């Protein structure tokens, strides 16, 4: 992940304090965000978190109540959608059902002052880009879902926008096709060097695609960073839970400071790494220790927690176990298949361990 | 979310043009009708007094208003014929609506239950008569219902009756005509609702032990209610003011306001009385229209 | 389908079609009497085609229908766009009321009040006044049909066009209008048929020299059953059936292809 840091390069897009309300509902609340040229960014969040509204404000379909949006220093807010140098790929693809694939691709090129042969040429190169040569005369309703998705992408790229907005671009595809397409999307983005801003509610997709993920919740940005940082060092329980399965053990901070702190829990003190929000918090502050299931080790020497095995699920590449602790808390532990301890019967006592740097202390 | 970033100038024309047209040719005529219903008849062209004197501007309108009187309404109120016509118009429309519901509901249900493939065909079959001349379809019943018509000929032939039945020019004939002509208006809204009904709902009810009739009574019917209300009003309102059916099938005895209006206007050339009948008719249907609009708005609201 | 449903449909559709069938069959009856079958004959069609006044009034009706349906299609489309796109504008309630009221208003009221307007403004009555009257009540029907289509339209298709650089006018003419075309055609056809069919309103607002087909037929129908009218009816029914069944066949075929989506 060698994304150009938005701090060093001049940002391509700058969103500054943008707010949008619908009636009493504040869909986007004072959002500020920079996007570097060539960056692949994902806006991630549950439905209704404001990510789509933000995208629609960039495309010009909604007008912000407050704030500024500039692209290369040029103000975008005053421009109607058809005059903005950004393009959008729609969630429903929004292909023109009454036009052939070629006409769909050419639509954005007309009005650019290109002559006919130039447009045909460009359409052909777009078809090559998305591997749809030979489909130019098809109507959208004669294409498969994956083909339609590619037409939509090619159409949005036709005008060579500096910034491409993609609203749930893979949402309508089935799982295998989605994974395949993720790779293609990244390859196209790298080849063209266009900045991509993708809206998605699927954390796996965001992690697979983006240089940088921006997590939104209730109209605000709650955390931004590379996938790994968000996964391992989430800023809040919300982000921790959004990006993957997580065990949360409640407790209170014990006195101390530094790289790791001790948390007093029902199972005795646990050592873990404090998140910035609690790094210098006072003792007795309520916190949770977040532990990813794959970080819990079974039957290890340095036993920290003990419990009873209540469920085992074989998931192909890994095994997931549920262990009930003395106070009723159920923890999930996931082990990669090679190296799985194997036959542990349900009801058997299990001991669990984890390295101090695997635990992450978050505000409760 | 409403895309409100695109606001081209001249956008207001989109609603202004139809609004102005409909105001001019629907609303204003109404106002004029109400005014003329307060005028006195005259043997002139146009046959009523006073006439608005357009050249006099506002003064003309004022004179017009000063000369208005309530004579026409007093006449309507005093004439038992109009009372009877009012009552019988409502009675005809209400009875026919009930019959239409009884016939239309099973038909719509049967259409909605038919296989997906034949449904468009069935809809087309219900629609075709609706697109066919109303006048002609009513006219066709004359040949069937008259004493020497097909129905009587058939019944006589099979020995079911000894004498031809008097059906044409009776209330029964009007009833048959109303039911026949408005059946598509009842079936189509009902079908529209029923075909969109999730078919697993009656199945779930049946699965939970409800009998066929209970499924219909407790699941299908309540969910089809919006279509039923729409259909009932769509039939009732125009039926109250129906002219062609009572005129062709009901004979000269039939008392319905639409026909009375026609006669006052074309035969008696009494425009003010005709206008007063129009106002009376309008008052009768305003209630249902308001209900209908309310239901429509609620539905629109729900879809929003 | 259960037997009950099958019987219901058979009886219901039978009820709807029996009178029409009677007309069609007896239009080929050589005898003047309904109850007497005088043998197959097309003589009434011959009589019909040499009936000058009837043909003239048919021409008037076609003219009126074409003009009024065109106006209704335009006004109705505008009205549907306003209701679908303009949100909660001031006077929306009055607008919808004005739009839909003519659809259910008893024709005698609409006809009488329009006539009083035309007399009031001293407008000579004839084809133009009938066209205005028919366009007024056709508008609501077009608006309903086009509005239903608009509601089902994926707004992002138009947004995509704008996003690809099309001005609002270009979006309307290259995307919105082509997508509305089937419903616009259906709306036009409905307005056309309603105009062709109208007796009551036309009787009020027409003037000398502008006798529509229903007016002519009505004056003959009042005199009793007439085989020539049976023939005229048959021709009308045949043309309408071809159009409606053709349209529904087209829509079935279209649905068949879009079902692949």
Automatic annotation (TrEMBL), chain A:
- Pfam families from the entry? ABC_tran (PF00005), TOBE_2 (PF08402)
Q: Where is the ABC transporter domain?
A: 13-243
Cellular component, GO annotation: ATP-binding cassette (ABC) transporter complex
Q: Keywords for this entry? A: ATP-binding, Nucleotide-binding, Transport
Q: Which GO terms describe its biological process?
A: putrescine transport
Alphabetized GO MF terms: ATP binding; ATP hydrolysis activity; transmembrane transporter activity
The name on file for this protein is: Polyamine-transporting ATPase
Q: Which organism is it from?
A: Methylobacterium brachythecii
UniProtKB/TrEMBL annotation, chain B:
Which SUPFAM superfamilies does the record cross-reference, listed alphabetically? MetI-like
Give GO BP annotations, semicolon-separated.
transmembrane transport
Top-level taxon: Bacteria
Span-the-membrane segments of this chain are 12-32, 90-109, 121-142, 172-194, 215-240, 271-292
**InterPro entries annotated for this entry?**
MetI-like (IPR000515), MetI-like_sf (IPR035906)
> What keywords are annotated for this sequence in UniProt?
Cell membrane, Membrane, Transmembrane, Transmembrane helix, Transport
**Family membership noted in the UniProt record:** Belongs to the binding-protein-dependent transport system permease family. CysTW subfamily.
Task: Quote the protein name from its UniProt record.
Answer: Putrescine transport system permease protein
Species source reads Methylobacterium brachythecii
TrEMBL record, chain C:
Principal cellular location given in the protein's record: membrane
What does the record say about its membrane topology? Multi-pass membrane protein
| Domain ABC transmembrane type-1: residue ranges | 58-248
Which InterPro entries does UniProt cross-reference here?
Answer: Bact_Polyamine_Transport (IPR051789), MetI-like (IPR000515), MetI-like_sf (IPR035906)
Please indicate which superkingdom the organism of origin belongs to.
Answer: Bacteria
* Keywords attached to this entry: Cell membrane, Membrane, Transmembrane, Transmembrane helix, Transport
Q: Name one GO cellular component term.
A: plasma membrane
Q: Which residues cross the membrane?
A: 7-28, 54-83, 95-121, 127-150, 171-193, 231-252
BP-aspect Gene Ontology terms: transmembrane transport
Where in or outside the cell it occurs: the entry states: Cell membrane
PROSITE patterns membership: ABC_TM1
Q: Would you identify the family this protein belongs to, as annotated?
A: Belongs to the binding-protein-dependent transport system permease family. CysTW subfamily.
State what protein this is by name: Ornithine carbamoyltransferase
